[in-house]
């Protein structure tokens, strides 16, 4: 589990392949502290397992599923990546709950830079659109961000100076591909409510069921409390 607060920008030193596994050796100084082989580390928003730890490097392995579903398939030596160690129990949740399970890869549609700030517009894949709301949370390349606005097929975020300085988002340009993870809480809410919502073509039956079950719960509560 992560928070989307990037601890360090690392640089990929080497990319090697062994059968269907791709190994990345990443230079890092902060994000390797206290990390042991087998621990989780987020690399540009992708939860990976650290397999080797050096004095100033961490090595991770990418399996075919990861390569298919994220932008990491395109990394090469010299690529800069956002790094975050797994959240320590009792630590500050400075961003939002991030799993490191990428929901999709999207393109940068527009970049507007100010004197010290920037606004980036990203593509919003249709299957993910229902989970993205204005002023809600979203993760882009492992960075916890607030959605400034949402429109058809796209969303916009506003980047403060510290985000531009401490992550790779300040380097993004139109056409770049980024990893997107929507708020997992929205997906759980949808799943929990799916049994109460009407199926297509069934009218309000789901709403009636919800109302009936809600009445039943209320009645039981009244009975228990006399």
- Protein structure class: alpha+beta
Query: How far do the termini sit from each other?
Result: 43 Å
CATH topology of the largest domain, by name, is Elongation Factor Tu (Ef-tu), domain 3
Q: Number of helical segments?
A: 5
Sequence of strands across the biggest β-sheet: 1-2-5-4-3-6
The level-1 CATH class of the largest domain = Mainly Beta
What's a concise summary of this model?
The chain is an alpha+beta fold. 20% of the residues lie in helices and 37% in strands.
What does the model show?
- This protein is an alpha+beta fold and 226 residues long.
- It has 3 domains: 8-85, Elongation Factor Tu (Ef-tu), domain 3; 104-188, Elongation Factor Tu (Ef-tu), domain 3 (Beta Barrel); 195-224.
- 20% of the residues lie in helices and 37% in strands.
- A hairpin with a 2-residue loop joins strand 10 (143-151) and strand 11 (154-159).
- Residues 204-226 have low confidence and may be disordered.
């Amino acid at each position: 589990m992560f928070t989307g607060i990037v601890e360090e920008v690392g640089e990929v030193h080497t990319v090697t392949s062994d059968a269907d596994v791709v190994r990345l050796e990443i230079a890092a100084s902060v994000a390797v502290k206290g990390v042991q082989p087998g621990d989780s580390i987020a690399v540009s928003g992708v939860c990976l397992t650290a397999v080797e730890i050096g004095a100033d490097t961490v090595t991770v392995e990418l399996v075919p599923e990861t390569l298919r579903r994220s932008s990491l398939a395109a990394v090469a030596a010299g690529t800069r990546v956002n790094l975050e160690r797994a959240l320590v129990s009792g630590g500050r949740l400075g961003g939002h709950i991030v799993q490191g399970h990428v929901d999709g890869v999207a393109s940068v549609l527009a970049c507007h830079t100010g004197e010290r700030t920037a606004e980036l517009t990203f593509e919003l894949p249709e299957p993910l659109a229902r989970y993205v709301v204005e002023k809600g949370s979203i993760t882009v390349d492992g960075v916890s961000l607030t959605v400034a606005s949402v429109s058809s097929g796209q969303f916009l975020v506003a980047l403060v100076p510290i985000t531009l300085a401490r992550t790779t988002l300040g380097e993004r340009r139109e056409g770049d591909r980024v990893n997107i993870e929507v708020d997992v809480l929205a997906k759980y809410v949808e799943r929990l409510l799916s049994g109460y919502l009407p199926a297509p073509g069934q009218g309000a039956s789901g709403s009636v069921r919800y109302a009936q079950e809600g009445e039943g719960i209320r009645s039981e509560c009244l009975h228990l409390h006399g």
